[in-house]
Amino acid sequence: MRMYDIILKKRSNLPLTDEEIRFVISGYVNGEIPDYQVSALLMTIVFNGMNARELGTLTMAMAQSGHMVDLSNIDGITVDKHSTGGVGDKTTLIIGPLVAACGGKVAKMSGRGLGHTGGTIDKMESIPNLKVSLDQEAFINQVNTIGLAVIGQSEGLAPADKKLYALRDVTGTVDSIPLIASSVMSKKLASGAQAILLDVKVGSGAFMKTIDDARALAKAMVDIGKENGRSVKAVLTDMDRPLGHAIGNALEIREVIDTLKGHGPEDLTHECLIMAAHMLVLSQICDYETALSRVQEALNSGAALERLHMMIDAQGGDSRVLDDESLLVIGKFTYDVTAPLDGYITHMNTEQCGIASVMLGAGRTIKDGPIDYSAGIVMHKKTGDAITAGESIATLYASDESLLVNAAKTYLEAITFGKTAPVVVDTILDMVE
Ligand code: URA
């Protein structure tokens, strides 16, 4: 079998056989097939797509390229969630405690920030001393004891995805439905959870810019999960504006705590309650209506906050942050972005809001580069809000003062102002199951 012939075949829009797909993945992971040939194949997939069988085989080959985690020692149905990536998306750290407080078993492996999008593991690391890696036994024990563990993906999990993702990032082949679906689902299948809730983001801050593309991606991922014996649902959520008020690691942790104390932003709280309820249903704990009232009660009673407390303690972190926000380091230099006119915010280019936050130091500009946990943005006004000329619409935080002015310019350019109030959609747009 020759990689050259496989590239030509896919370029002619002919489906690849299962053997050919497995040949590509194993050859790439063990270094026999070079980046440039895989890049060419990825680009043919961007243009010609893949059928359902090819996609299923590709995903399994990627999942099996490394260690398949065995969670069978966890009592009960293990449930995981995955977001396709957004700006201000700190939902895992709110939903996980909500679900655990209602009896769910959340065994979650999360990623780091990518491009303009943030990552749960980076956010968690802004909590002093919190460990984001546990060995398998400790991970399983923690889920059995408190119902919740969130750790980084281990090196050995789906290494094919790791290599392919890095290549896609630099070859213009990220935003392709079969490539995103196989990337996400290979990690989810390898992570071992029996039930999976997918959060497919749609809009200017998401990889999928239209609802139709997001639905197609959701359907592809749900089908892969079901064919592999997992219970899967996808929720399509709005990413045409950042979620909540905070962007940036420590600032987002502050917002997580506020939300679990019952005074978080309305859009964030609403989205988290709905997704947590779906996770309880996927875990076969109760029906949707009961689940919604249980998660609401877990929020109101402080039971979910208590689960976050237990998780931070179990993972060695300083849980005093829950009562003393000064333990979270926030950038000491600030800059207020002001409204240029009386009227409304009519749109937010959410990707660009994320880029402004990266410019402040909150994200990486090179792979494995440094990150400033204290940097970020607090948005006082978002799409649909009325504004008056000169008032602050956002405060930027940095530990390097020289970064503020350029980031403020980028942030302001991301915002569209107008005289008429826009229609603001609900953050939950659709479901695919
Ligand atoms: N998230 C992933 O894990 N993979 C992609 O390809 C895109 C988003």
Automatic annotation (TrEMBL):
Keywords: Glycosyltransferase, Transferase. Its EC number is 2.4.2.2. The keyword Glycosyltransferase applies. It catalyses: 2'-deoxyuridine + phosphate = 2-deoxy-alpha-D-ribose 1-phosphate + uracil; uridine + phosphate = alpha-D-ribose 1-phosphate + uracil; thymidine + phosphate = 2-deoxy-alpha-D-ribose 1-phosphate + thymine. SUPFAM superfamilies: Nucleoside phosphorylase/phosphoribosyltransferase catalytic domain, Nucleoside phosphorylase/phosphoribosyltransferase N-terminal domain, Pyrimidine nucleoside phosphorylase C-terminal domain. Transmembrane segments: none annotated. GO terms for molecular function: thymidine phosphorylase activity. Residues 344-418 form the Pyrimidine nucleoside phosphorylase C-terminal domain. It comes from the Bacteria. InterPro entries: Glycosyl_Trfase_fam3, Glycosyl_Trfase_fam3_N_dom, Glycosyl_Trfase_fam3_N_dom_sf, Nuc_phospho_transferase, PYNP-like_C_sf, PYNP_C, Pyrmidine_PPas_bac/euk, Pyrmidine_PPase_CS. PROSITE patterns: THYMID_PHOSPHORYLASE. Homodimer. Catalyzes phosphorolysis of the pyrimidine nucleosides uridine, thymidine and 2'-deoxyuridine with the formation of the corresponding pyrimidine base and ribose-1-phosphate. NCBIfam families: PRK05820.1, PRK06078.1, Y_phosphoryl. Belongs to the thymidine/pyrimidine-nucleoside phosphorylase family. This is Pyrimidine-nucleoside phosphorylase. It comes from Veillonella infantium.
